[in-house]
Amino acid sequence: MPVSIPRSKIAIIGAGAVGSTYAFALSLRGLAREILIIDIDRKRAEGEAIDMSHGLPLLPPCDISASDRTDGVADADLIVIAAGVGQKIGETRLELVGRNLKVFQSIFNSMPALSPNTLILVVSNPVDVLTYASLKYSGLPPERVIGSGTSLDTHRFRNAIAEHFNLDSRNVHGYVVGEHGDSEVPLWSSVHIGSLPLQDFCHQFGGDFDKNTIFEQQVRQAAYRIIERKGWTNYGIAVALVSLTEAILRDQNTVLCVSSYLREYSGIHDVCLSVPCVVNRQGIRQWLKPPMYEQEYEAFAQSASIIGNTLDSLHLRK
């Protein structure tokens, strides 16, 4: 039998490609009884809400509404922030930071006092910097402010390996850690296919491959390639967000690679980065520490340094 969930409210700030696709995917899965879409362009938000509501007779019950104000987030179980300026062709995620940080300051300045049970999920880029800013602006405990981080990169990573070996991607396990961006780090050391470490699988079944080329083309450059072709990304991240939302609302204790505040994590301190975490209704229940090759840890530390330097340049860290 499906696991029942209590009546839940999700407020989505930002009705662009990502926010609206996520809202639609939520309605299909029936994860929320109330979806509030908020955008500075009220007509856009209303249009999305009305359009989605027309499919409700065929879907689980849900109230879908729209607003251009954040008043309605006070009693939300989950606030998902997908607002901000999109990434342009050839632009890195970190180059977005100045513009989107101003957007986030405006959002949090307009918010009412939040329920202590509320969780915040940050999607906008650069997500690691904006997750840190959201933690600072909201005043919520670190475990209740989560960034989508490398959750999608991790799925891309697993899918790339599965495609190479012609396998069901659900049987591939591995993580991408660090920045959701150019300095992200694939943990080849922890990749398993079924119960076999990747090296053992290649030895038994053959088919070793150029790991760097596959990761660079199908994971690290994936967003750039999609943006070059259609101008934005939305479907993959929406599915990843729904999976994360389900882990939260269904209290699943699921291991997901998400961005959150790291305090004395293997020598990394006072940044938000992605590592595997146990996620449930309280947010981050536990931060896991997968084994890393020496070069993987060095790359992870370098990724942390890049984010830390960006935070310092924005005066977000004291």
Describe the model.
- Helices cover 40% and strands 19% of the residues.
- The protein is α/β, with parallel strands linked by helices and 318 residues long.
- It folds into 2 domains: 9-147, Rossmann fold; 151-313, Lactate dehydrogenase/glycoside hydrolase, family 4, C-terminal (L-2-Hydroxyisocaproate Dehydrogenase, Chain A, domain 2, Alpha-Beta Complex).
- The protein has a 6-stranded parallel sheet, sandwiched between helices.
- Helix 1 crosses helix 9 (235-249) and helix 5 (151-165) crosses helix 7.
- The longest helix is centred in the C-terminal third of the chain and has 20 residues, at 294-313.
Tertiary shape: globular
How many domains make up the coordinates? 2
List the helices and strands in order: EHEHEEHEHEHEEEEEHHHHEEEH
In CATH terms, what is the architecture of the largest domain? Alpha-Beta Complex
What fraction of the residues are assigned to beta strands by DSSP? Answer: 15-25%
Which ranges are low-confidence, i.e. pLDDT below 50, for 5 or more consecutive residues? none
Alpha carbon gyration radius:
19 Å
H/I helix tally: 10
- What integer is the average pLDDT? 93
CATH superfamily of the largest domain: Lactate dehydrogenase/glycoside hydrolase, family 4, C-terminal
Q: Order the strands across the largest sheet as they lie in space.
A: 3-2-1-4-5-6
Helix content: 40-55%
What distance separates the N and C termini? 50 Å
What kind of sheet is the major sheet?
6 strands, parallel
Classify the fold: give the CATH topology of the largest domain: L-2-Hydroxyisocaproate Dehydrogenase, Chain A, domain 2
- The secondary structure category is alpha/beta
The beta-strand count equals 14
